[in-house]
Write a structure and sequence with these properties.
Elements (H helix, E strand, L loop, with lengths): L1 H10 L9 H13 L3 H14 L4 H13 L3 H15 L5 H13 L2 H14 L6 H10 L8 H22 L3 H14 L4 H13 L3 H14 L4 H13 L3 H11 L7 H13 L3 H13 L6 H12 L4 H14 L23 H8 L4 H13 L3 H5 L12 H10 L5 H4 L4 H18 L5 H17 L6 H15 L6 H8 L3 H13 L3
Helix pairs in contact: 2-3, 3-4, 4-5, 5-6, 6-7, 7-8, 9-10, 9-11, 10-11, 11-12, 11-13, 12-13, 13-14, 13-15, 15-16, 15-17, 16-17, 17-18, 19-20, 20-22, 20-25, 24-25, 24-26, 25-26, 26-27, 26-28, 27-28
Length: 504
């Protein structure tokens, strides 16, 4: 029996299965119909690799990218179909119009919707294109100026967002204040302005902006999430828990809103909810930025999904190596973005035009647990570009023996100790340290020129804090501040006058 089977086997012919573009295309369509965006994308990409000149495959892959909110990738493919593969596929103009509408680029959306209607008057998407024109407020060219203005607003928001991410809060605030004044009902500008105020340490102003948004636009998810962020950093635990309980009941539709909600839950330590939303949109094909993969990695790790956590961290390292410094599960505490303590922010601070900001950058190196990594960072400013004051300060924090020769009176050392007093005090209460310490280093530099002696460090720290509070329109009294520092009111008043006298 065995020999007979072996003989039959020898006579049999083997026909190898070689998958074609059509095979992968059909698998991609089936996955798309099941709304399995990741698999649809995978199969259609393979189909296009096998048949790169097939416009139908490219067009279908573009639609999958649209479903995953990857509008730039979708547009690239649609333009490729029209310009290189088959300009008779006029429906690509309608798909482009849709994408541009999602991006807020309404003039481009209008242009492609009109092109589609002009080129294919009996097309499958004729009614949809007409509805799209109505939705963006155009049925002719008369309102094109309004659309151009809307696009300019959106471009300004993108610029402001990049300024926020780079730590340039002052310029972001200037741009956003003008946007809010010019367009009082454009809520994304309000939300970004609230963040900018908060990161700049202007907590009351930030809260006021959010209060205004939620009063005029109740249920605004971005405003509610920003409020949760503020409460978290301000350590308002009870209010935060109440808000997070309410947010847990929200079921957002848009990927962007799900991302915002997931990131907010991750920041506030609600890792189960965070992982649910962030992983869900990834399964649907969402391909996020570095921030997305940071929060996905963190929430995955703390929910026991370590494989996903390490995959997300690997993706973050690929997208933005500068942000992939310390794994989120290795951090002692969540860095406060108001203080600019990440590597990129510190390197930028060291190159600031303002000497007080450069000193703050050196101070941050001193309190970091990664001094060696920071001073050997590829973006670390060349030592020859440091001023004498900076060199003395850097020598002090690195415990170099040169400090005794350069700073014999210990002036820089005492200035650093006062900075530490202020830093530890505000850090312990969850308050932003950046604006206060930059104010202190500004006072320090003026006192350095006038030769003011730093004899009573606690009193000087209290006086510097009072000056900063007054500049910030904070109503804290001298009596309360003196009690907090354990000094008399008369001593506090004396040092306030001293710092003001020698810092004018």
């Amino acid at each position: 029996m065995f020999k007979e089977s072996k003989a039959l086997y020898k006579k049999a012919k083997i026909f190898p299965f070689i998958p074609t573009g059509e095979y992968y295309f059909n698998k991609g369509i089936k996955a798309y119909d099941r709304f399995d965006i990741n698999k649809a994308k995978k199969y259609l990409k393979r189909a296009l690799e096998l048949e790169p000149h097939e416009p139908m495959i490219a067009c279908q892959l573009a639609l999958v990218h649209t479903e995953a909110a990857e509008y730039a990738e979708s547009n690239k493919l649609l333009y490729e179909v029209l310009n290189e593969l088959d300009d008779r596929m006029t429906e690509c103009h309608y798909f482009l119009a849709n994408n541009f509408a999602y991006l807020g680029l309404f003039t481009d959306a209008y242009k492609h919707a009109r092109l589609y209607l002009d080129l294919d008057q009996t097309g499958e998407f004729q009614e949809d294109a007409e509805e799209l024109l109505e939705l963006i407020g155009l049925e002719d060219d008369e309102n094109i100026d309004d659309l151009t203005e809307q696009e300019e607003i959106i471009n300004q928001q993108d610029t402001a967002r990049k300024l926020l991410e780079s730590g340039d809060f002052a310029n972001a605030i200037e741009m956003l204040e003008k946007a809010v004044e010019d367009h009082p009902e454009f809520w994304p500008a309000h939300n970004n302005l609230a963040l900018a105020y908060f990161y700049e340490g202007k907590t009351e102003k930030a809260a006021g902006v959010l209060e205004n948004v939620l009063e005029k636009n109740p249920g605004n998810l971005h405003a509610l999430c920003n409020l949760a962020v503020f409460l978290y950093y301000e350590r308002q635990t009870e209010q935060l828990e109440t808000l997070l309980t309410a947010l847990d009941k929200v079921q957002p539709l848009l990927f962007e809103q799900r991302y915002k909600l997931g990131a907010t839950f991750a920041l506030t330590g609600k890792y189960d909810q965070a992982y649910f939303w962030l992983r869900q949109i990834q399964k649907y094909g969402f391909d996020g930025d570095a921030g997305y993969y940071y929060w996905l990695a963190k929430s995955a790790y703390f929910t026991g999904n370590e494989k996903v956590a390490h995959q997300a961290w690997k993706q973050l390292s690929k997208i933005n190596p500068e942000k992939a410094v310390v794994e989120p599960w290795s951090e002692k505490e969540q860095p406060d973005p108001r203080n600019g303590e990440d590597d990129v922010a510190i390197m930028k601070m060291l190159r600031s035009d303002r000497l007080e900001e450069r000193l703050y950058g050196i101070f941050l190196i001193s309190v970091s647990g990664r001094q060696q990594e920071l001073i050997t960072h590829s973006e670390f400013k060349p030592l020859d570009d440091f001023s004498l004051t900076e060199k003395i300060y850097l020598a002090h924090i690195l415990h170099s023996g040169k400090k005794e020769k350069i700073d014999p009176d210990g002036f820089v050392e005492k200035g650093h100790e006062i900075a530490l007093l202020l830093f530890n005090r505000y850090k312990a209460h969850g308050m932003p340290t950046r604006p206060l310490l930059i104010t202190w280093f500004s006072i320090f530099l003026k006192a350095l020129k006038s030769g003011t002696a730093f004899t009573n460090k606690s009193a000087i720290a209290a006086a510097a804090e009072y000056i900063w509070l007054r500049q910030s329109n904070n109503k804290k009294t001298q009596k309360i501040l003196a009690e907090e520092y354990g000094i008399s009111q008369s001593t506090l008043r004396k040092y306030i006058r001293l710092l003001e006298l020698h810092s004018d």
